[in-house]
Write a structure and sequence with these properties.
Layout lengths: L2 H14 L2 H6 L1 E8 L10 E3 L1 H8 L2 H4 E13 L5 E12 L5 E13 L2 E7 L3 H8 L2 H9 L5
Parallel strand pairs: 1-6
Antiparallel strand pairs: 1-2, 3-4, 4-5, 5-6
Helix pairs in contact: 5-6
């Protein structure tokens, strides 16, 4: 699979709530980075096993029901794409609506995600989750995509 196909497949797995398969898309030494992560939130998760642990509880926190406005931008490097999308659903604990825009820079080599840099808005996520303490408590223990 090329980079665009891997990203499309990852978003389909997110919707399907198949977090084991989602994490399985990462290379053994793959990395997720969150450059805008607030204090107390992980800035970097390294390795497929750690990524699986990090995302496995995601469906228990957020019920993502729609991926909208998906645009994949190709770059001059065929292994790197930039993806923009909006995830919409509900916060499981509160039933509050969740709608957040994401931009990610994704490097894929040999059909595996090597690097995923997620430029999400922690203020918007905190508001949806009920505040920054709730956001950190929910995700620092194990989930965000």
């Amino acid at each position: 699979m090329n980079a665009s196909e891997v990203v499309d497949h990852a978003l389909e797995l997110l919707l399907a709530k198949d977090m084991a398969a989602f994490a399985g898309l990462w290379a053994e030494t793959g990395v997720i980075e969150f450059p805008f992560a607030p204090p107390g939130y992980p800035q970097r998760v390294e390795g497929r096993t750690a990524i699986h642990e990090y995302v496995r509880g995601y469906p228990d926190l957020l019920d993502v029901r729609e991926i909208a406005d998906r645009v994949v931008h190709r770059t001059v490097d065929p292994e790197v794409v930039i993806v923009e999308f909006e995830a919409a659903g509900v916060v499981v604990a509160t039933g509050r609506p969740y709608r957040l825009r994401y931009i990610a820079v994704v490097t894929v080599r040999d059909g595996e995600v090597r690097h995923y840099r997620d430029y999400w808005n922690p203020l918007a996520a905190a508001e949806a989750m009920g505040g920054s303490d709730d956001l950190n408590a929910a995700f620092s223990g194990g989930a965000h995509a």
